[in-house]
Amino acid sequence: MFRHYLTAALRNLARNKLYAAINIFGLAVGFAAAILIGLYVRDEFSYNRWVPGADRIYNVYSIANPPGRPPMVLDTTDADFADLLKLEIPQIRETTRIMPISHSLRHGSVEAMQKIYWADANVFSFLIMPVVAGDLQSALQHPDSIVITRKMARKFFGSDNPIGKTIEIDRAHPMQVTAVLEDYPSNTTLAAEIFASGKADFSYLADRDRHRPSSSSGGYEASVHVLLRLRPGVEPGEIKPALESFFSRHRKFNPPDMIKLGIVPLSEVHLYPAGMVEMMPPNDRATVYAVAAIGILILLIAVFNFVNLMTARASRRAVEVGVRKAAGASRGNLVIQFVGEAMLYVALSMIVALALVELLLPVMNAFLGRGIAFDYWREPWILAGIAILMMAVGLLAGAYPAFVLSAFRPGVVLKAGKAKTGRMRGVRGMLVVMQFAILIGMIIAAGVVYSQTRFAFEGAIRLDKDQVLLIEGPCHTALEQNLRAISGVRGVACTSPTSLGLEVNQTPAVLSDGRQVFLFRGDVDFGLFEFYGIKPVAGRLFSEKHSADAVSSDPNAPWHPALIINESAVPMLGFANPQAAIGKMIKVTGETDKAKPSEVVGVVPDFSLKSIRDEIGPTVYFVNPARNRYLNVRLTGQQIPETLAAIDRVWRLSGPPKPMTRFFLDEHMQNLYLDMVRQGQVFAIFAGLAVLIASFGLFGLSAFTAEQRTKEIGIRKAMGADTRDILHLLLWQFAKPVLWANLIAWPVAGYLMHRWLQGFAYRIALSPWLFLAASGLALGIALLTVLLHSWLVARAKPVTALRYE
Amino acid sequence: MLQLNNVCKNYRTTEVETRALADISFEISAGEFVAIMGPSGCGKSTLLNILGLLDQPSSGSYRLAGEEVAKASEHKLTAIRRALIGFVFQSFNLIDDLTVAENVEVALIYRKDKSRRKQRIAEALERVGIAHRAKHRPQQLSGGQQQRVAIARALVSNPKLILADEPTGNLDTANGDAVMGYLTGAAKAGTTVIMVTHSLVHAAAAQRTIKLLDGHVVSETKL
Ligand SMILES: Nc1ncnc2c1ncn2[C@@H]1O[C@H](COP(=O)(O)OP(=O)(O)O)[C@@H](O)[C@H]1O
Ligand SMILES: [Mg+2]
Q1: Which residues in chain B are contacts of A805 at CB distance < 8 A?
Q2: Is A65 helix (H, G, I), strand (E, B) or coil?
């Protein structure tokens, strides 16, 4: 019996090679996409889980709630909090600290800027990581201890085991390698591959420990990751109240609860928002879910397709069913036959899919910078998942036609020569509509993400970013002048990172009526606005001609520099319009207790290099050369390599004694929006896949339909229809489901993309043209796909069509 | 109405060449009612398909309504079919998805003939006594009823030429006689009717009988 079914199935497959190939390959592409997406999603949820007990190690977050503005999350807190937390909250068993700072490292002739985690000695009792050499428990005992990964060991020492060797920090402080870590897997949030002892005298962590802020202090520096472990049996929720009230007991802020502490397990840090990212850039949980949903949708498209084609094909076999029934086959026999046949197709698809995954996984890993493995033979649950998927698809695709067909009385089927498959056609139509709805939705999503990305790079940026090189470093006059003298350099200006939104600093400010507000603060140097082509909306820009414009370098002098505010600050500070703000007095109190009211001399448009996800916010600018940390250099754009070489030379001659960190503004923006660019690419790739699978399906379906309607076409031609009439008839048949699909796709995609755009402070409007274009594209693809078969049957001589019976 | 001169039709498959029609020549004048007879496989359907412009001869000349159409373009053939010809098939050839009325309408829509369409369909259905089934699907009708619908479809456009390929072949005597009645009526009204049949009785209703054997005309009898 089984052999009989198998030969029947294989012959059927061999007889319909094109159909079988389309069917198997379409489903295989769907399976492969679903598996790849499944692996990606699993990887997203696996972050840090390779660290033993990652779900019981918590990172302390600072959540700032400045009045009247959206909350801001930081995955760091102040250094003195680690001890205090352990002291005051008895449920906390142990804490440790990691402070990320970049330094220059040198061994022999190898020198590079590297991020270092300055850490407490007990850090490795939290982060229990595999080692190449050395003992982690004692590794950071001495103030000159340093622990590096294998990759760093190879980079600086050219060997895997440089234990006991020395590496120099900032060309001044020798440190001894005490242990070498295995390289981290790709699913880590650890951003530094070097741990150094926080006891080192020159480390900023030690410095912070020497100058602990008092509990009446208004200063708060969220610069360290505090990790903590709870006592056995304690749930994180139990210490929530204690954490939330903690801050107000140790710092004097107005309002007192402006900052609250919270904890997130290491295993979830990756999908938790972190405003100013100190660890690896996090992913957005919603994005991961969206990708998972796309995977499911693609799988659905492929399965719909498969079920559709199997059903369509099955209706041609009504006579076979009739004969078999007449010969005594029971309904059960027939169901088994059809389901078995579908299973055969599914199994072949899965084999092709697994091969595709093997082929594409390295590509995906390279694209995402991951090391995702697909060891399905070692992971029983993946195998089980694949088996369940195959069963489900096979059952769906086989059972439906089997039940419908096997329910016919053989006499009816044999007499008519075919079954009444109207009901199946209805289901098929619905599946095609669903497929195209998904497809159109994906095209819309890809379009919206693409437009928003374009907007982020071009439309939203309100400053002249062309050919700008940013150099991290001090800004002394000699360096500035030497840079300006290079022929490929058009202009140089100095600034702090805050004015460009590269770092965020908030300051309280007191208005003339005594009201206190929180403003973003941008420390600039003369010429910065001019450098970026920013023109005042009212008043003037800073000028060296006005001696009162700059903060005095004398620490005892009164503190009241001239202020420029941005447009967002105008209403926030209670001014009717920019002009009305000019000449008004505001006291910026964050810097010093010597602050006196300052005069607003200008208003500039809102601008920032921050992500368009975040509001630029009301900002106050003043000239404060002490905070300069970036050199902005605009190149002419000609002979860039020569110019860069000249800049490097100037740095060696008149810059500080460390390697230079420089990057183009364009690169910065690329990094800033990397996730969005990736999302756009992911949507585009998967929309493409969906198109491919749906086209396969439609192609198969059109071949089938054209064949099924041959007789009708013959009749119509005999009645005077010409090729054009028939082509219209057939194309309209395929256009209809696409048009129906819009009714589903438009509202759903519109709503979801509207939600997605809400995540941005600055966003594009959803254009109806995009929706129309997506539908037009889908329609075009559908019609092109079915054109071939439709054209072939439409052109056939009517007599050929009529002979088909 | 039409003239055939030395019409041949060969079917070429990969192995064999079949000569379905060999040197057929005859003339049929307007308003004639002609029966074509002959054993199965002698080329009757092939001949009718060529007469109806559903197929083209391999060689020879075919003049229809004064125009040479043996080598005419598909476009031209469609235009002439629209203007002149109605068909009745042995196996009815109704479209399953359309109602009876819609099936009849098919004969009008491609003629871009919009005048009084509804009324003409109703009249045609009335003429063949099937008006009460206008909203049914072909599958819900008996064979005799289905063939009446096919006749209504052939008549509704008032063609100059009706081609009927064994219109009574699948019907019982009573239904067969009814169908013959409609065809005779159409012929009386001045339509040229060419009908393939195996029934001597039905052939007798025609004014003239052409006998085919292996693709040749073997005899012509005229009443
Ligand atoms: N499309 C075709 N291809 C090959 N041979 C055909 C084709 N159509 C008809 N024939 C052959 O031509 C001959 C005449 O067929 P047909 O006109 O259908 O006969 P009739 O209608 O008289 O029974 C037959 O031998 C048939 O096998
Ligand atoms: Mg025949």
Answers
A1: 91
A2: coil
SS3 A330: coil
Decide if A58 contacts A188 (C-beta within 8 A).
no
Q: Is residue B87 less than 8 Å (CB to CB) from chain A?
A: yes
CA distances to A448, A458, A771, A774 from A767, in Å: 9, 18, 7, 11
Residues of B in contact with A725 (CB under 8 A): 110
Whole-number Cα distances in Å, B48 to A225, A408, B18, B200: 92, 37, 17, 19
Residue A568 DSSP class = T
DSSP annotation of A459 reads: I
Q: What are A236-241's contacts with CB under 8 Å, separation 24+?
A: A236/A58, A236/A263, A236/A265, A238/A91, A239/A89, A239/A91, A239/A92, A239/A263
Number of Cβ within a 10 Å radius of residue A572: 19
Residue nearest to ligand 1 atom 18, measured at CA: B45
Which residue from B75, B78, B93 is facing A720, i.e. has the nearest CB?
Answer: B78
The alpha carbon dihedral of B71, B72, B75, B79 has a sign of: negative
Amino acid (1-letter code) at residue A618 = P
Our CA angle for A165, A167, A172, nearest 5°, is 135
CA-CA distance, A161 to A696, in Å (whole number)?
Answer: 55
Q: Please give the distance, rounded to the nearest whole angstrom, from the Cα atom of residue B211 to the centre of ligand 1.
A: 16
B205 lines ligand 1 (CB under 6 A): no
User: How much is the pTM?
Assistant: 0.76
Residue type, A120: D
Would strands B2-12 and B59-64 be described as parallel, antiparallel, or unpaired?
antiparallel
Cα–chain center distance at A527: 36
- In 10 A of CB A63, how many CB atoms? 17
Q: Which two tokens stand for residue A128?
A: 């229990």
Which helix (H) or strand (E) element contains residue A218? none
> Token pair of A681, please?
């690419």
A139 vs A135: CA distance, rounded Å:
6
Specify the length of chain A in residues: 805
A100 φψ region: left (φ > 0), alpha (ψ -120 to 50), beta (else): beta
| Averaged pLDDT in 10-residue chunks for chain A of 805 residues | 70 74 90 91 91 93 79 86 93 95 91 93 94 92 95 94 93 94 92 94 91 77 91 92 90 82 91 62 77 87 84 72 68 80 92 94 87 83 88 85 66 48 69 87 90 86 85 86 90 88 80 83 90 92 84 75 91 91 85 76 90 85 87 90 91 84 87 79 82 84 77 85 87 89 93 88 91 93 87 78 57
Task: Return the bridge partners of A565, or none.
Answer: A603, A620
Q: How far is A433 from chain B (nearest CA, A)?
A: 21
- Find all residues with CB under 8 Å of B108, minimum gap 6, and list them: B117, B120, B121, B156, B157
Q: Which two tokens stand for residue B158?
A: 């008032």
CA distance A798 to chain B (A): 6
Q: What is the DSSP letter of A80?
A: T
Residues in CB range of A777: below 8 A, 6 or more apart: A443
ipTM above 0.85, yes or no: no
Token pair 């004097």 is found at A252
Task: Please name which of B23, B98, B88, B30 lies closest in space to residue B61, comparing C-alpha atoms.
Answer: B23
Q: What is the DSSP string of A346-361?
A: HHHHHHHHHHHHHHHH
In one letter, which amino acid is A233?
A: G
